[in-house]
Design brief:
alpha+beta; GROEL, domain 1; GroEL; two-stranded antiparallel sheet; elongated; disordered N terminus
Length: about 525
C-alpha cells in the first residue's frame, strides 16, 4: 500500500468518527428541541412493558431515552451534571452542546484544523460568559419582585407553584440560599391528594412501623440510625459452638439493654435507614415511640440537618446515656399522615428548613409537578446567587451579535471556532421561535435589529403574537448562573467530543465503532 493510500485511509477514518459523533449529538439535541420555550410541547416515552411517561423536562427525557452511542451518553452525562450543580438548564445545555459539535464538525469538514476550532470555541465561550455577566442584574433580597418572574418563567407559567416556592425561600432566608452547599430544590416534594402548602420542617416519605404507634408527637427528641436495628449477628457455624452461642446471647442481651435505654432516656422518635426488628418494634410501641424504618439517605440527611441529630451506627448505642444524648435531634412537632404515607417533622432544632409541598390531583402528574416546582426553586436560588439576565433567548441573541464583532480579535483560524459558538448561541432562540410557529431566521433578524437599535440585549420575541418585546419589562427573566453554567458545560463536552480522533471497539464490547442513537 502506498503512503498516499495510508493517509487517505486515516483521513476517511477520522472523518467517519467526526461525522458519526456530530450526527449523534445533533440527533440527541433535535429530540428535545421541540420542548423548549413557552410553546414547547411534551414528549411521550414508552417502556418495554407499556409504561408511559409524558414530560417536557430535559433531564427526565434524557434519563429515560434508550441511548447506545457513546457521544450521546457524554452529552447526557453533561446535562445530568448541569442538573446536579444548578438544578435547571438541562435542555439549554443539551441544545448548545449539540449545536457546538455539529457546527464544529462543519468547520472541520471545510478544512479548518480541529485544534483551531477548539481554540476558537474556548475563546468564544469565555467571551460569552463575560457578556452574560456584564448584563446580569443583582438580586439582593428574597422580597425582590423579580424573583416571582424568575419562578414563573422556570415553573412554566404556573403562578401558584411560583408563589409556594417564594414563600419557602422567605422561610429559608437569604443567608442559607446564598450557601453554595445548600440545594433549595431538595426542599420540594409533591404528593397525590395533598394540600399545597409551605412549612418550616421536612418530610419523611414513610409511615410508622405499626398502627399502635403514636401519630402525633410534641417536643420531640429524635434518634437517627445509619444502620439496621437488630442484635449483632453471628454466622450459623459459629453459633453452634459453645463460645459462639455465648457470644450470640451476650450480643442479644446488650442489644435489649440498649433498646431499654432508648425507651427510658426521653427519645420519642427513632428512624433507621434499614430494618428495625420485632424486639425493638414491640419495645418502642409500648413506650409510645414512633419508629420508622428504611428511610432514604437523602431524607435522613435533610432530617439530621433540620433537627440537629447526628447519625449513629448500631454499635454507637453502647455509649453511656449522657454521651448518647449528644447525638439526638429535636423538633417542636411530628405528625404522621397515613393517607399520604409520610411524616412531617416541624420546627427542628437545627438548620432552618422549608418544605414546599405541592399537591397533585392524580398519580400521573405527581412527578411532573415536582419537577416544575424543583426547577422554579433552583432558579430562585440561582438568581439570588448570581443575578438575572433577560430571558426568552434574548441574552443569547445579543451575545451572538457581540461574538460577530469579537471574532476579528481571534488569532488565525480560531475565528472560525468563535463563529461556531455564535451559531450555537442562536440555536435555543431559533427552537423557541419554531415551536411558537414563526420563521426562526426572520425573528432572529428582527430581534437582532431591535437590540442594535436600542443598544439593549433585553429585546426578544413574544411567542404569543410574534411582536418584539423587552424581556425585563415583560417579566421574562432567567438566572445568569444557569445560563453561564449551561454554556460552560456545553463548551466542555463539545470540545471533548471534537478531540476524538477515532473510535475503537474495546475487547469487552463496551464501545462500538459505529454507535447509534435510538
Amino acid at each position: 500500500m502506498s503512503e498516499s493510500n495510508i493517509h487517505k485511509g486515516d483521513l476517511d477514518e477520522r472523518t467517519q468518527a467526526l461525522l458519526s459523533n456530530a450526527n449523534a449529538a445533533r440527533l440527541l439535541a433535535q429530540t428535545i428541541e421541540g420542548t423548549i420555550g413557552p410553546k414547547g410541547l411534551d414528549i411521550m416515552m414508552v417502556g418495554n412493558l407499556g409504561d408511559v411517561v409524558i414530560s417536557n423536562d430535559g433531564v427526565t427525557i434524557l434519563r429515560l431515552m434508550a441511548i447506545n452511542h457513546p457521544v450521546a451518553r457524554m452529552i447526557i452525562n453533561a446535562a445530568r451534571f448541569q442538573q446536579e450543580q444548578v438544578g435547571d438548564g438541562t435542555t439549554t445545555a443539551t441544545i448548545l452542546a449539540g449545536a457546538l459539535v455539529a457546527e464544529g464538525a462543519n468547520q472541520v469538514m471545510k478544512g479548518v484544523p480541529v485544534t483551531q476550532v477548539i481554540e476558537g470555541i474556548k475563546l468564544g465561550v469565555e467571551w460569552s460568559v463575560q457578556s452574560i455577566a456584564d448584563h446580569s442584574r443583582n438580586v439582593t433580597s428574597v422580597e425582590d419582585p423579580v424573583l416571582f418572574d424568575v419562578a414563573v418563567t422556570a415553573g412554566r407559567d404556573q403562578k401558584d407553584i411560583a408563589g409556594l416556592v417564594l414563600e419557602g425561600a422567605r422561610i429559608v432566608g437569604l443567608p442559607k440560599l446564598l450557601d453554595p452547599e445548600y440545594r433549595f430544590h431538595d426542599a420540594v416534594i409533591a404528593r397525590e391528594g395533598a394540600v399545597s402548602q409551605v412549612f418550616m420542617g421536612t418530610i419523611v416519605s414513610r409511615s410508622p412501623l405499626n398502627k399502635d404507634m403514636p401519630r402525633e408527637l410534641e417536643d420531640v427528641r429524635i434518634l437517627v440510625l445509619d444502620d439496621s436495628l437488630a442484635p449483632e449477628d453471628i454466622d450459623n457455624e459459629s453459633r453452634h459452638t459453645e463460645a459462639g452461642f455465648r457470644q450470640y446471647m451476650e450480643n442479644k442481651k446488650r442489644y435489649q439493654d440498649n433498646i431499654g435505654k432508648i425507651c427510658t432516656m426521653g427519645v420519642n422518635m427513632v428512624l433507621a435507614d434499614r430494618s428495625i426488628d420485632d424486639i425493638a418494634e414491640q419495645a418502642f410501641t409500648g413506650a409510645d415511640i414512633m419508629a420508622v424504618q428504611r428511610v432514604s439517605r437523602r431524607e435522613l440527611d435533610l432530617l439530621c440537618k433540620h433537627s440537629g441529630a447526628r447519625k449513629l451506627k448500631r454499635s454507637g448505642l453502647d455509649l453511656p446515656e449522657d454521651k448518647l444524648k449528644y447525638y439526638l435531634g429535636s423538633a417542636a412537632r411530628v405528625q404522621a399522615d397515613d393517607k399520604l404515607g409520610c411524616i412531617s417533622v416541624l420546627r427542628g432544632g437545627g438548620w432552618p428548613q422549608a418544605t414546599v409541598l405541592v399537591g397533585a390531583a392524580t398519580e400521573e402528574v405527581v412527578d411532573e409537578k415536582e419537577r416544575i416546582a424543583r426547577d422554579a426553586a433552583a432558579a430562585v436560588q440561582a438568581a439570588l446567587q448570581k443575578g438575572v439576565v433577560p430571558g426568552g433567548g434574548a441574552i443569547e441573541v445579543w451575545t451572538a451579535g457581540q461574538l460577530d464583532r469579537m471574532a476579528g480579535e481571534a488569532k488565525g483560524m480560531a475565528a472560525y471556532g468563535v463563529q461556531v459558538v455564535k451559531e450555537a448561541l442562536l440555536r435555543p432562540f431559533a427552537c423557541m421561535a419554531t415551536n411558537a410557529g414563526f420563521n426562526p431566521l426572520e425573528k432572529i433578524s428582527q430581534v437582532t435589529a431591535e437590540q442594535n437599535q436600542r443598544g439593549s440585549g433585553s429585546m426578544t420575541l413574544d411567542c404569543d403574537n410574534g411582536n418584539i418585546i423587552d424581556a425585563f419589562s415583560c417579566g421574562i427573566v432567567d438566572p445568569s448562573l444557569i445560563k453561564v453554567h449551561a454554556l460552560k458545560t456545553a463548551g466542555e463536552v463539545a470540545t471533548a467530543i471534537l478531540r476524538i480522533n477515532t473510535i475503537i471497539k474495546m475487547k469487552d464490547g463496551e464501545c462500538s465503532t459505529h454507535g447509534s442513537i435510538e
